[in-house]
Batch of 2 targets.
Target 1
Amino acid sequence: MNTTHHPVTIVGAGLGGLVLARVLHVHGIGSAVFDLDADRQARTQGGMLDIHEETGQAALRAAGLYEEFRAKVHPGGEALRVLDKRAEVLLEQKDDGDGGRPEIDRGDLRDLLLDALPEGTVRWDSKVTDAVPLDGGRHRVTLADGTTFTTDLLVGGDGAWSRIRPLLSPARPAYTGISFVELDLFDADERHPASAELIGGGMFFALGDDKGFLAHRETDGSLHIYTALRAAEDWLSTIDFTDTEAAKAALLEHFTDWAPGLRALITEADGPLTPRLIHALPVGHRWQRVPGVTLLGDAAHLMSPFAGEGANLAMFDGAELGQALAAHPTDTESALSVYESALFPRSEQTAAESARSQEMLFDARAPQPLIDMFTSFEA
Ligand SMILES: Cc1cc2nc3c(=O)[nH]c(=O)nc-3n(C[C@H](O)[C@H](O)[C@H](O)COP(=O)(O)OP(=O)(O)OC[C@H]3O[C@@H](n4cnc5c(N)ncnc54)[C@H](O)[C@@H]3O)c2cc1C
């Protein structure tokens, strides 16, 4: 029986996997991308991403998509407000329009990358359930429907709970001590004008007592809010999120002495509340070279979101790996060595920065350490 063979297999059509596929395509190298989502619309991608110059923007340049990206940037999205629990505004920055921290809707960015790949590159509804090493660096991959294929190069771009990571490393993500409850206020200018004014046009932090609200105005005019608390790992499981009013009441108990305008972000939330535990891999996670397989993005270096770098790094990893493979067309192992020798110190540095940012946000003196940091950037 003939087994299907893909020279390059990318597991995961996240931002990292898609940038890799696109950069390979730009260099004339084909790839097959497998994702468990039923199709490209299966999940709302949600959230604004701040695309950093040295990582995300560099990746988009390598992918030949920088100009298209600039056309989709959210104007005004670089504004910033930092408040304390009394809703006193302690720091306010307008979007000065210099475009140094361009913001884009995650869904728009993903669409940009998907549209830049040859038809059929991404195989949707294709959950990878197993991958085993064969001789000579090849792997055999199994999908949930029982299909198997072989590949010369297997790249795990499959996020936090990667199926590919165990081929390289026994590490597992651990709970960081921070729990989120995500909320949305739709059509904010019309339906929630006071909250819209409070949050402003871009990024918003209201912090104190080891907790707070991290929010963002989205391109569709909604407000997306992460209520964040330092909490035991099982705290979220004690709340019944199928009963939205009860979940709001449970959450409000943690904000009894917060300003009414901040509590209103919870009481006025539209739709269901979404719980989320924040996990991270150990800072400095790395592995020994294993022939024919590597990782990128969260699969390689899941970190807490507090440095705003995870998606940026995933894209940069994809671009770096694509360029290394293009530069070593007949020697995949050399390409992987070059890629990983830069990946490990880069991820370690940013993961450490993320862990420090977490401590800064959920600090007894918050939001002062955050204000000090933004003020030092300005200086
Ligand atoms: C609340 C929150 C806020 C964040 N904010 C920011 C921010 O502002 N800026 C920023 O840079 N980063 C941010 N991040 C981090 C960012 O979301 C991630 O780092 C980024 O999405 C990682 O991209 P990725 O391509 O590695 O993985 P993912 O985006 O997780 O993509 C993995 C893909 O693999 C697929 N997949 C998984 N398992 C399988 C399987 N077995 N078979 C087939 N397919 C599979 C999934 O369907 C998915 O499409 C945030 C994260 C969180 C949780």
Target 2
Amino acid sequence: MYRLEEETEADWWEVEALYDLCFAPGRTALSSYRLREGVPTVASLCLVLRDAEGVLAAAIRYWPVEVGGQDALLLGPVAVHPTRQGEGLGALLITESLAAARRLGWERAMLVGDAPYYSRFGFHKLEGVEMPPPTNPERVLGIALVRDGWQGVQGAVTRANG
Ligand SMILES: CC(C)(COP(=O)(O)OP(=O)(O)OC[C@H]1O[C@@H](n2cnc3c(N)ncnc32)[C@H](O)[C@@H]1OP(=O)(O)O)[C@@H](O)C(=O)NCCC(=O)NCCS
């Protein structure tokens, strides 16, 4: 049994520790982190999954960004504790948070990640959407949260103005 909750301020460092455990060292050097610096998360979409004892099992965060001046969600980081991977927790966090994003009126979401994993949720390679270098363009993926949500949306991905 897992509890799905919105991340609170008190969860911040525990989630950071989970990310440190799940990602290669130096994760914060990735270009996506430059887009997050100094920008608050989209708090209502940042979720944690805890087991019956309250132990953190998985977490997902989102930041706002702009693509060619248009609002978009940047999904990530998402991570599942190594002892709990493959149970569907990653999928649960992604589908629940994207459903919430749709309800909140977000039109598009993007991420930098593995297409073989994210394609099952409807993500596809974005053409003409440029992450700050160095980013492999093959890993720049997006999903429309409304019909044609990515139609005509191209250009540089930049930090949200807030
Ligand atoms: C990637 C991650 C979030 C997936 O969460 P999870 O709860 O383990 O995954 P799920 O149970 O929802 O899905 C499992 C399926 O995804 C596949 N999968 C997991 N990671 C994958 C990847 N990087 N590429 C392709 N497939 C992947 C598994 O092989 C499995 O496939 P199956 O359904 O055919 O058996 C988790 O494994 C994780 O935290 N990894 C380390 C951190 C990371 O890489 N985060 C993503 C950054 S882009």
